[in-house]
Amino acid sequence: MGSEEWELYPYIGSQVMEYGPISEDSNDDWNGDVAVSLDAVLPDDLLEKVLSFLPVASIIRSGSVCKRWHEIVHAQRQTWSKMVPQKPWYFMFACSEDAVSGFAYDPSLRKWYGFEFPCIEKSNWSTSSSAGLVCLMDSENRRRIMVCNPITKDWKRLLDAPGGKTADYSALAFSVDRSSHQYTVAVARSNQVPSEYYQWESTIHLYESVTGSWVTPFTGVLLGWRGGDECVICGGILYYLVYSTGVLVNNNEHRHCLVMYDLAARPNHTSLMSMAIPVPCALTCGRLMNLSEKLVLVGGIGKQDRPGIIKGIGIWELHNKEWREVARMPHKFFQGFGEFDDVFASCGADDLIYIQSYGSPALLTFEINQKLWKWSVKSPVSKRFPLQLFTGFSFEPRLDIAS
Fold this sequence. Notes:
mainly beta; Monooxygenase; 6-stranded antiparallel β-sheet; 4-stranded antiparallel β-sheet; 7% helix
């Protein structure tokens, strides 16, 4: 387990400005405000209450005011569980073989911060986040899984997951109980059956923090369908996006399908395809997310005559196994990405969805409650060569939860 203090570097215009620590006897203005010591006025509990109303970035920076404030900010106190709800941040970085570092976007303050993400060592690791924690799976050793709080830098490595170090396809899902802070990790693996091109063995492995151990409640074979890298836990159900291998799909059927697995009942002798839900239209790719315990699908809409070519992006919400369209990306925003690949990154939490093209650091947000599309402030992530790729994922910034 590791924990260390981190600094915020708000990105303004074309510069990244460092916020350094402020000494106790400093009389300088801080972000336009006069730094006033409240040590002689407020007891600890009231000071904590005041700080809890600030954005999380401001709370972290306030820890540089003096030793007392630093201890209050970095203590694992119940106060932070009652702080003002924070919109999810988005961590963006360029794909490379180096250690991952990048910038985190705060949509509330519309600022980017220089950010060193704990644990993750390569840009192609699988990630899934929930309630302030992020779960990461090593792309080269699929048994190696870690859980961390990216704000406090608290992290730990879980027991190795069952199965081999590699799989043809692996998907990671993560869910945290907001009251108990206990969490569940789900790893769905898909491997082609030897000498059987259209048969794929699908396995679901589950880890629960309350027991600290893994179980494998489901193993089955899919005919004509294979798993991929997209799954999510929502309302106690594991939703898993599977892909047609072509043997059972005619020209009128889609290449994607959604299957479900009840994590409470954990049926072993069942067919995942028996309760499959068709996707709402021909998709070039699909991204699943849990928005306030509602399953949301963000998908690239394929052309009618060429379903593998993207013509737009749609957002749907699942209601009683039926999809309801929430919105479609306006064409001006779709064009704003420039050349948009058939696959893209998209994730979110609460009521906020992020969409990013792998070929560009441009970041678009969609507030699902207000149906509002908005570009983020220009990202400081730079493109070093023409074919460089970018990616990212979202997480909720919280101080009250540990791995």
